[in-house]
Amino acid sequence: MLLAEVLADLEANGTEQTKKTFLRHGAKEPFFGVKVEHLKKLQKKLKGRHELAIELYATGNSDAMYLAGLIVDPMKITKTQLKAWAKAAYWYMLSCFTVPWTASESRFGRELGLEWIDSKSEQVAACGWSTLGSMVAITDDGELDLAELVELLDRIPATIAAAKNRTKYAMNGFVIAVGTYVAPLLPKAKSIAGQLGQIEVDVGDTDCKVPVALDYLRKVEAMGRVGKKRKEAKC
Fold first, then answer.
1. Which of 15, 44, 116, 146 is the most exposed place for a label (fewest CB within 10 A)?
2. Distance (Å, whole) CA 89 – CA 178
3. Contact between 130 and 93 (Cβ < 8 Å)
């Protein structure tokens, strides 16, 4: 399929109801309102079509941008392209999922994650914390810098109050990710989570809830799931 054919497919499979839902969550025109379920069907057909992924993301169409993250080859994407993707990720479906999934599986995940968390942009900073959270989920503990992760955890209670909306959500998610996927750091993550309590995030006109990190980690621990890595970042 060529770019025009994929966009035609997306337009044909968009619905007004899904579009209304995504608009409430932060999406903006242009987009068609395609359910993720359909995007995953396209993923099976187009996975590995790296150049097509780059073209799709460049359209600025949210449906196409999300699909791009599902089919891109993370080992082929450049640092410059990832930075451009992060800058263009204007709402959380892109900044907290599409770009972090891709960055974390690339050669530049740690470097860019650490760079992005210092950004003044709400979505770029959220992208950074989400990238680092995705990395711990797919990287063996022996390849992680545990001391660095502890430093990042310690940074959160002191800075989260001043962070912007979606950045707060991503910081809370990072604490959950470390405690869930890095078994040696579960006690530390639970300690930080206890300090955070319930994080207040404006989720707009939606029913979304911000998970309480400590409650989440206790559930993961009770299920015996701590330290079980994911095969890939995207889900």
1. 44
2. 24
3. no
- Residue 65's nearest CA partner among 103, 45, 26, 91 is 91
- Sorting pLDDT into bands at 50, 70 and 90, what band is 144? very high
Top pLDDT among 235 and 213 is at 213
* Helical pair 50-58 and 79-88, crossing angle rounded to 10 deg: 30
Task: Give residue 205's pLDDT.
Answer: 78
Asked if 157 and 192 count as a contact pair (C-beta separation under 8 A), the reply is yes
The Cα 62–Cα 64 span in angstroms is 5
Cβ contact 212:198 at 8 Å = yes
CA diameter of the chain: 51
Q: How far apart are CA 217 and CA 206, in angstroms?
A: 24
Predicted model pTM:
0.96
Burial of 21 (0-12, 13-18, 19+ CB in 10 A): middle
The single-letter DSSP state of residue 78 is -
Structure tokens at 147: 């001391």
